[in-house]
Specification:
Blueprint lengths: L8 E3 L6 H4 L5 E7 L4 E5 L3 E9 L1 E4 L3 E4 L11 E4 L4 E6 L3 E9 L7 E3 L5 E5 L6 E7 L9 E7 L4 E8 L12 E9 L5 E6 L6 E4 L5 E5 L3 E6 L4 E9 L8 E2 L13
């Protein structure tokens, strides 16, 4: 068997599937719709989330969804769909969507998530302070997905201290695949992302840019926004058990200044 080298940085519009990512659960892609364009598809055997990055669309069964101009303009709308259902939407204005899915078994009903439903959390302090938008938290009704937006001001650190969730060892840790979808303001900027294992068999220093996707299949991970450039990322996580349990890098655990809520 040929072992493919791990390529963590991907084109968001091309997206990833479990096969192309080399893992089991998460699929992701971004879609841009011109005003008047239609998107019709089927969730098949996957729980699927449509997340409005910007713009508005009419969605069959839900009416007009969306409203923010872009990710910097308030909290998102999202539609969470169970396996086995069709969806059909038409853009009212130019519309940017993130579509996240994972194989699941669920009898939950399709659900519209409004900005008022999105819990906001401030995490960290000083140069580690960042703002969290919980779209689908582990406490929320869902079968497989955990979805969250993170806003890291220019020059700040995020996903800090570094932590990992690649081992099933409850109540200490649950194995979850994770990906980061980045937007940077201004768009010519960048962030840094580290991904590493304790034995350094995986030890990456990445420079994700605007509209790029980074995969985190294992290892500790951490993000830093470059000075002068605000960093947004959409996190998606999925695993066999939908529970966010993580282990902080013991070298840096003394810097932990926030609690899981």
């Amino acid at each position: 068997m040929t072992v493919r080298p791990f390529d963590p940085v991907r084109n968001a519009a091309e997206g990833v599937t479990p096969d192309s990512a080399g893992w089991q659960y998460l699929s992701f892609k971004t879609v841009h719709l011109a005003a008047g364009a239609r998107l019709a598809a089927h969730t098949k055997a996957e729980e699927t989330a449509l997340i409005w990055l910007g713009g508005r669309a009419t969605v069959e069964g839900f009416g007009t969804v969306g409203g923010r101009v872009d990710v910097w303009d308030g909290k998102p709308f999202a539609v969470l769909l169970p396996p086995g259902v069709p969806y059909d939407l038409r853009a009212v204005s130019p519309c940017d969507l993130a579509i996240v899915s994972a194989p699941a078994q669920s009898e939950l009903r399709p659900r519209l998530i409004r900005p008022a439903d999105v819990r906001v959390e401030t995490r960290g302090s000083g140069v580690t302070e960042r703002r969290i938008h919980w779209i689908v938290a582990e406490q929320d009704l869902a079968a497989r997905l955990i979805l969250v937006e993170v806003f890291t001001p220019a020059g700040h650190w995020s996903t800090f201290p570094p932590h990992k969730h690649d081992t099933d060892d409850p109540p200490r840790e649950r194995a979850l695949e994770e990906l980061y979808y980045y937007r940077i303001r201004p768009e010519q900027g960048f962030a840094f992302q580290g991904i590493y294992t304790a034995d350094r068999s995986l030890d990456l220093a990445l420079r994700p840019r605007h509209d790029q996707l980074v995969l985190v299949p294992r290892g500790y991970h951490v993000v830093s926004a470059a000075p002068g450039y605000d960093c947004y990322y959409l996190n998606a996580m999925a695993g066999a058990v939908r529970e966010w349990l993580f282990t902080t890098d013991p070298d840096h655990a003394w810097l932990m200044d926030w609690k899981k809520v």
